Amino acid sequence: MTLIHPFSALLMLGLVMTATAATALDNPNSVTWQGTEGPGKGKRIVYLAGDHEYRSEETLPALARILAKEYGCTCTVIFTTNPKDGTIQPGSSVISGLEALQDADLLVVFLRFQHFPDDQMKYIDDYLKAGKPVIGLRTATHAFNGLKGAYERYNEGYKGDTFQGGFGREILGEHWVGHYGANHQQSSNLLLEKDQLEHPVLRGVSDVHVQCGGYNADPREGSIILARGQVLNGMKAGDPPAPDKKILPVAWVRTYKGDAGRVFATTHGASEDILNDGFRRMLVNAHLWCLGLEGAIKADNPIAFVGPYTPSTFNFNGEKKGIKPSDIAGWDTPILPPSPAGQPAQH
Question: For a 10 Å CB count at each end of the chain, is N or C smaller?
Fold first, then answer.
């Protein structure tokens, strides 16, 4: 029998404990759902949640759970957080763990006016230089602002020789042009392009109605419009169209660097938008299409929420307070749970 010196045993125990702690605390600003079976098995999706108004911190985890549970993907959502206590703080520009992009197969962006530090922007830049697929939701058209130096070109409205218009225009196909429909007063029906009804992203999609107001958009040349928004005078699908509003593009696909650089972009995506089955199906389809799995897109693929999803009404300063990413780990925790006692209620 081999005897182990007591000091060696303590050292081994310490190494095991350190390794376990390192794994548990690898990135407290994120949560990962590990898929096991499905067409996306072996694929990793990284979601970046950090807008100020439309509750990306609720939309993205809800989508991530569906893609992990039903399609087998490994889905990591990384949040902007409060540096003092590690709670989710929408739009704080405090983020870590973007090295997850080094082995990601798809990046999903729902950011607004972020200025991440260079050591984190490097991973985004490397990912895009590799020409990998991207999904951009709502404010991703103006995901970055205030960056200086090496990554200044990502800023909204950048006017340099390259990246004209910044990340939004260069990668997604459009940057921030302005609102086209009043939030909480005018919703939209999405009208699918008749000549694109056979596109895999639209497979099984119908009756799409979204809550957040529209954006102006004229996607750059080479973009394929999938849906246009009909602004309504009201918040229900049956409300009358606004007579003074044109029907503008709200969802499109394109490539930004070779055939593998697939992009799906939409000017919608707020927390309440994904309650609509048609819109949620479009987003799930878009994930599979971007991953090159269009053959797995079926008109009746599962799109049900995994675990409780009761979204907040989107608004500036309307986020739930005091929530940490670990509070939504697992499959059955609410997205997001109620704010802890003593925290101010959402506005």
Answer: N
